[in-house]
Amino acid sequence: MTRTVKWLWTTVFIAMVVSIVLVWFNRFTIFDAYVLRSYTPSPEIVQLAKDSGMNETGAEIFYSHVPKITEQAEFNSVCTSSEATIVLGCYTGFDFNKDTDIYIYNVQKPELAGIKEVTASHEMLHAAYDRLSPKQRQQVDEMTATMVTKINNPRILQLIKGYQDKDPSVVPNEMHSILGTEVASLDPQLEQYYRTYFSDRQKVVALSESYEAVFDTAKSDTQRINGDLALRKSEISQQEAQIGEDEAALLETKRQLEAYRTQKKFAEYNALVPSYNQQVEAYNQKISSLKQLIAEYNKLVQEYNSTVDRQQDLVNSIDSKYQYYE
């Protein structure tokens, strides 16, 4: 083989290696262009991106994974996560061989408007995290880990702890999605990072806070009514005890009256009658008050049951595993 031929083959080899490297580093750009050339998102999918505040980059990542809003059966067949928490969506991973990588459960409860937008953004950020280089991922992980130490939101901290307890390896990825969609105030550097994907991140945070407030209200109503029930129950017990004492005193007065009458002590009898009548009146008033208190308690029980049912109905409406029976 001549020197010229060797040089030619070396050049070709180097060109191939460079091409492969370029393709690898630009694989997501190539993938996006390939998918978006033949995919047109539905108006509903476009609205999810718009309403959640995604910018062009975030929307492009979202669309490139051909997001799909699915009903219960299909969602459960695809999003087979073993998470302990309720799953509202899933990103199944970057795959050239699949049409759809992002699935969103079709929650239709009017009170929970915004939940699909938040889910869409959450899953988009999983896809975005998947695209980060090892160096970028390390930098982002450091920012999110620092941010979590400054959060004073029990629900979010408990959510992250749930992931930590089950599979610590997914925590950085999950924090990346949770902080980006559910925490309003972030460190400036982290906020700047999320501007890569959102033109107005506060839109998705506001939607998250809105539907979470529905659950919080239902929970606080249940707790409030439960507290009122405990108070009424205590009042009923106290009044029943007092009525028991009054009844015993009333019976004793009545026995004394009967004794005076038997003994023909009419002066003593007549002197005790007014006191007895007052005791009877006071006793009847306490009985009436007790009945009213019991009626209030029973009404609160009905209200409590209704609130618990509403709270459970909200939970069931976002739980793809829940089965409704007629």
What would your notes on this structure say?
The protein is mainly alpha-helical. The protein folds into three domains: 12-131, no CATH class; 133-199, no CATH class; 212-318, Helix Hairpins (Orthogonal Bundle). The chain contains twelve helices and three strands. It has a three-stranded mixed β-sheet. Helix 4 crosses helix 6 (115-131) and helix 11 runs antiparallel to helix 12. The radius of gyration is 35 Å and the shape is elongated. The protein starts with a helix and ends in an 8-residue tail after the last helix. 22% of the residues are buried. Residues 15-26 have low confidence and may be disordered.
Count, helices: 12
How do the helices and strands follow one another from N- to C-terminus? HHHHEHEEHHHHHHH
Rg for CA atoms: 35 Å
The rough form would be described as elongated
> Helical amount among residues, as a percent range?
over 70%
Reading side by side through the largest sheet, how are the strands ordered? 1-3-2
Question: Strand-residue fraction?
Answer: under 5%
Number of strands: 3
The first-to-last residue Cα distance is 82 Å
Which structural class best describes the helix and strand composition?
Answer: mainly alpha
Uncertain segments are: 15-26
Mean pLDDT: 87
